[in-house]
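Quick one: Cysteine-rich protein from Leucocoprinus leucothites, structure tokens please.
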Amino acid sequence: MRLQFKTCSTIAATILLIQPASAGLIAYGICQTGCNTLAVACYAAAGFTFGTIAAAAAPPAIVACNSALGTCSAACATIALTPTP
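--- reply ---
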């Protein structure tokens, strides 16, 4: 379990380092897809299936995955407000 948490933490750190692009709604959709893909990989690294864990019963690795997904999604939200050139 320790190795899985370390892998998930690495993925979460990678998500937090991603810089958003400025290209409007299409970029927003691409950004959200990237965030969700990384979240699925984070869950898989922790040995779980994305979308099948209740928040109250989530182990620390899944909480870290969810936190990273929220941060990544928030970064994507700024893209939707950016005008497309």
